[in-house]
């Protein structure tokens, strides 16, 4: 299927990053089973909620900072390099696709990015080391250096609207795909999980590579329940 395709789209979920040592937040023992998620409206309204959010971020950040791209990430980067993959749509927030060599403008981050922060008012980017330095001083909350607005990690929180530009870019790439490869997504989080079937209905072949079955397996042209890195390394020819 890869050999026959020229407009491949990758769609990645937590399963590709667990192979780099990043735990799935939804799995047993994951952060969302230990903490009640902080709703976006609470983050905006309450300084206490913002402090708790930053406490959790810095308490769990070490694992993400140590993580490096695995064979699955590198295989997708190779397909991009070959000009066969037009986009990587990801539900992940770890930045590992960019670290593997996929250009920023070819990674569509539906749930944002946890490797930096941004102002909610003007969008100014702020590095986490700067926020950490402030927060370590009596848990001082960061304010935007440009406009004084609220700063949070550049992720999409519970209750926060999905990013319109990224959703539209994802739709356009999905509709143009001739092969759509799902890697490590349980396909239960909507609206993101609608893209594979959108591609299938538009004529693309659909491949799902995931450890566990998904509700969309019966619609796929090929389903593989195996490790992503091992599977994609063999398919693409990378280590």
Task: Describe the overall structure.
With 239 residues, the chain is of the alpha/beta class. It folds into two domains: 1-22 and 69-111 and 162-239, Rossmann fold; 34-66 and 114-155, 2-Layer Sandwich (SIR2/SIRT2 'Small Domain'), CATH 3.30.1600.10. 36% of the residues lie in helices and 18% in strands. It has ten helices and nine strands. It has helices at residues 14-18, 31-34, 40-45, 47-66, 71-81, 96-99, 128-135, 164-176, 195-201, 228-236; strands at residues 8-12, 85-90, 107-109, 112-119, 125-126, 151-155, 179-183, 205-209, 222-224. The strands form two sheets. It has a six-stranded parallel sheet with strand order 3-2-1-7-8-9, with helices on both faces. Helix 5 packs parallel to helix 10 and helix 8 (164-176) runs parallel beside helix 9 (195-201). The longest helix has 20 residues, at 47-66. The protein starts with 7 loop residues before the first strand and ends with a helix.
Notable traits:
alpha/beta; Rossmann fold; SIR2/SIRT2 'Small Domain'; six-stranded parallel β-sheet; three-stranded antiparallel β-sheet; elongated; zinc; NAD+ binding; transferase; membrane
């Amino acid at each position: 299927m890869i050999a026959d395709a020229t407009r491949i789209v990758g769609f990645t979920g937590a399963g590709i990053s667990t192979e780099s040592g990043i735990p799935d937040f939804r799995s047993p023992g994951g952060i969302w089973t230990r903490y009640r998620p902080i709703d976006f409206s609470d983050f905006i309204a309450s300084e206490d909620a913002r402090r708790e959010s930053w406490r959790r971020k810095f308490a769990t950040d070490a694992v993400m900072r140590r993580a490096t791209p695995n064979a699955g990430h590198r295989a997708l980067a190779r397909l991009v390099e070959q000009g066969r993959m037009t986009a990587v749509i990801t539900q992940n927030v770890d930045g590992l696709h960019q670290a593997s060599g996929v250009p920023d403008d070819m990674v569509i981050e539906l749930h944002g990015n946890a490797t930096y922060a941004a102002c909610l008012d003007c969008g100014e980017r702020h590095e986490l080391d700067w926020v950490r330095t402030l927060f370590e001083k009596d848990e001082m909350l960061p304010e935007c250096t440009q406009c004084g607005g609220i700063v949070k990690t550049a992720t999409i929180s519970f209750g926060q609207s999905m990013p319109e530009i990224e959703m539209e870019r994802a739709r356009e790439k999905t509709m143009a795909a001739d092969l759509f490869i799902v890697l490590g997504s349980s396909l239960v989080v909507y609206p993101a999980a609608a893209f594979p079937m959108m591609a299938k209905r538009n004529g693309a072949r659909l491949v799902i590579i995931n450890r566990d079955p998904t509700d969309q397996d019966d619609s796929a042209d090929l389903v593989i329940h195996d490790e992503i890195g091992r599977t994609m390394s063999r398919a693409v020819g990378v280590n």
